[in-house]
Input
Amino acid sequence: MIETVENAAQLAVVSICGGVSLYRAIRRRSRLWVLMTLFYGTFLLGLLYWLLYLLFYGLTPQFRYISEMSWYTAYVFLFMILQTIADPGERSVRKRSLLLCPVFAAGMAVLYMQFSSWLSNICSAAIMSLLMYHAARGLIYHRKKPQHGAWSGFYRLMLLFCASEYLMWTATCFYWSETLENPYFWFDILQTVCFFLILPAVERVEQSAKAVAQT
Amino acid sequence: MTYYIENIYICLAAPLLVSVLYLRGKKQASMIFLLVGMTACLLSSYISTFAAAIHHTTLVMASVEITPIIEESMKLFPILFYLMVFEPKKEQAADEAVVSAIGFATFENVCYLLTNGAANTLHLIIRGLGTGTMHLVCGMIVAVGLLTLWDRLYLRIAGTIGLLCVAMTYHAIYNLLVTQGGAAAGIGYLIPIVTAGFMLVFRRNIYKFLKIS
Output
């Protein structure tokens, strides 16, 4: 029951954010907001399938590929959003510590493979590596520039989003209770908050980019 | 009574195959893709049944969890082959994606009629329109994507996989609702009809809008 309620709340948040993104995409005719709409839209479809399955059969799908593919596709669109808003100077950041991102993702994928399919974990590790790598690289580049606070905030949010996803996946490996004591639900709520915050964060980055371009 | 869908396929495909020999240009290509869509449906039914047997699942559960993945992939592969080998104009490829989806839906409706009977006209109108339109919408999702995303390599790869996933999930949600019966099935049948109506009304705006730089 708690999972259904929690998923329904996330569905509502993602729907509202998707609707706002669509409205902005139509009004501004901007590729960034088209990508935002695709990000929220694909995640919404996967979540809707998951929630309907939960409502009709009272359990999660036996084969999770359909929802998982939608969610990974949403993360691909999120990666394309990162590419779109990235400053060209970010590519010049070369730090060995950034390699920790793929190493961490690979290590976690090996852990998760003990509990679920290897194919799904390889896909998630690849996508999460890219997201974390780009977010960390962007944060390193922008953190010492006072007028680039919007970018720093957005990249911190991206890292928090990835952390919430990893905490959620790890919790599902060790906790299965259907009560609020299960940390999975806390991290899922955290991810819902991140979904909501991504919208204003992207808006701020877009405005900052315009302001920086004018000066 | 046992039905042999291969024989039904032969009966439906034979006149189309003959017409391919006589037609020329775009009409010939469209007829070939109608045939390709029907062939994809036949092959999908084989693969879905095989996958359901391997995973020891019922046909209803397979239609909700396995069939959408197989059917949408089978519909996309011929279009990808056409794009990569023949390098047609984008508009032509998008049209053929829709024609292929129509061929798929037609053959699926014929198979449904044989297994469930043709007595209830109202149900068949709703079911035929719902399923037919659902396949058409999934074809249009891929077509619109191909039309707008095929120019750049990274968009081509990410966009094709992404749109395939969108079509699969859309198809799975439709199947999930329709297999429940009652009000849920009614909503399921309505979703593609409403989506197709929306796409038809705003078709020019959508194409114009998606051609942003």
Remarks:
- The radius of gyration of chain B is 17 Å.
- The interface with chain A takes residues 55, 57, 61, 64-66, 68-69, 154, 158, 161-162, 165-166, 168-170, 172-173, 176-177, 180, 184, 209-210, 212-213 of chain B (CB under 8 Å).
- Chain B has a mean pLDDT of 84.
- Residues 48 and 67 of chain B are 6 Å apart (CA to CA).
